[in-house]
């Protein structure tokens, strides 16, 4: 195993660690790890990301379900519309995008490059939210205890489209939505987010497996390390303030996003 591959597999632990601590965020690292560390093509990297994030989150959510931290009614409201947009985007939208995406004279933007630019933009927005602390609202529209089911369903559609396009679980968006629009306490929002991410990711992955060849000898060990990471993250969440870790992680995500953009431009 080369030093670069060692770094890549070690990063799998970080992916699970962040998901376990904060209910999301770690998944936004999987595509850059696959593309820039392991040299996997962008479209395949998004497929791998969905499997890793889905499996890791599912294992983590079992503990939350057993402790009755997951709000199943809110999950159903948010997840059903999300399932539809994820599956349709992975099954039809992403494969149908032209390659190159557009061309002007001698300049051509390849589909894979466009997805990486979009991914980097999402990373910058997520990093900004993590650094500013805006992903930890205390109350919002549902502070009166009455969830805004219509708003949750619409947001589920939007998050599903994002997940289907770039292969990220969207936990950095789901957690604040569950607090603001469902009125969930933070610990229940994090637990519910992990479960939603798991199911969303598997739905997106199901839209891919019909036209994608997978290297299970690579994918399963990486996923196993990520699962170890989520258990570490859930353990540390009992002792370490997640806000402080998320702020540091936000700066790291911002640095990775800037690296991605500079790498693609150059």
Automatic annotation (TrEMBL):
One of its GO terms (cellular component) is plasma membrane. Keywords: Cell membrane, Membrane, Transmembrane, Transmembrane helix. InterPro entries: TM_pro_TauE-like, TSUP/Inactive_protease-like. It is found in: Cell membrane; Membrane. The keyword Phosphoprotein does not apply. It comes from the Bacteria. The keyword Repressor does not apply. The chain crosses the membrane at residues 12-37, 74-94, 114-131, 152-180, 186-206, 218-237. It is a multi-pass membrane protein. It holds the Pfam family TauE. PANTHER family: MEMBRANE TRANSPORTER PROTEIN MJ0441-RELATED, MEMBRANE TRANSPORTER PROTEIN YJNA-RELATED. Belongs to the 4-toluene sulfonate uptake permease (TSUP) (TC 2.A.102) family. This is Probable membrane transporter protein. It comes from Spirosoma agri.
